[in-house]
Inverse folding.
């Protein structure tokens, strides 16, 4: 049974122009509003990633970010200047749906497209450059106000007037809890195993968690968070 969780999308965005931002190639500032997303299994029409090694792929075709988070980050003085959607590079912007309400593996219906939630956004140093704060990525990691990614289960179109329905729930771990577990400051094999049991979890997170358990160690986050070792 479908459960409607958002009555209407706030906005939809795409962009495929690569721009140098503080010496780093990025498409984050090239997103523009559209009335419709043309969704394929491996891409959105008119959308691209400057760094396909770390962004995009089948598990991260669409990025969904709650618009109200911008206000909270502004209240925390995490932005050097005023920024709003789509400054996170998101494709779907909504109000009233957050990381505690969405679970890993949730099956969503938007328009005639079926999607599955795969992972939280894993923040990197490019957000520090984007918002003019040296610890923006760390603040996102700690606050869990990160948005989430979808893989595409059926192709089609998403329109601005479409509602968002949850069709099925296949895990008991929310995006917020997944973010908490993945970024625990100390190694915790038991919690990693819990997260690994989530159906639909992005393969890159499966690989990373499995590697941690095998190595009995957490990878160094300095490069991701600050752009330097």
């Amino acid at each position: 049974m479908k459960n409607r969780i958002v009555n209407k999308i706030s906005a939809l965005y795409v962009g495929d122009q690569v721009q140098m931002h503080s010496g780093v190639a990025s498409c984050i500032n090239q997103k523009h509003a559209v009335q419709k997303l043309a969704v394929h299994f491996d891409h959105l029409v008119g959308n691209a990633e400057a760094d396909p090694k770390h962004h995009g792929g089948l598990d991260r075709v669409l990025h969904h970010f709650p618009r109200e988070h911008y206000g909270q980050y502004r209240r925390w003085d995490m932005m050097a200047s005023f920024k709003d959607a789509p400054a996170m590079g998101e494709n779907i912007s909504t109000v009233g749906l957050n990381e505690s309400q969405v679970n890993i593996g949730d099956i969503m219906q938007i328009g005639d497209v079926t999607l599955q939630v795969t992972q939280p956004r894993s923040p990197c140093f490019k957000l520090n450059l984007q918002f003019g704060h040296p610890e923006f990525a760390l603040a996102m990691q700690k606050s869990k106000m990160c948005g989430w990614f979808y893989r595409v289960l059926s192709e089609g179109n998403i329109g601005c007037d479409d509602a968002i329905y949850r069709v099925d729930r296949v895990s008991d771990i929310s995006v917020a809890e997944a973010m908490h577990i993945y970024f625990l400051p100390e190694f915790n094999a038991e919690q990693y195993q819990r997260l690994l049991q989530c159906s639909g979890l992005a393969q890159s997170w499966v690989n990373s968690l499995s590697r941690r358990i095998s190595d009995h160690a957490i990878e160094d986050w300095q490069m991701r968070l600050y752009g330097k070792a």
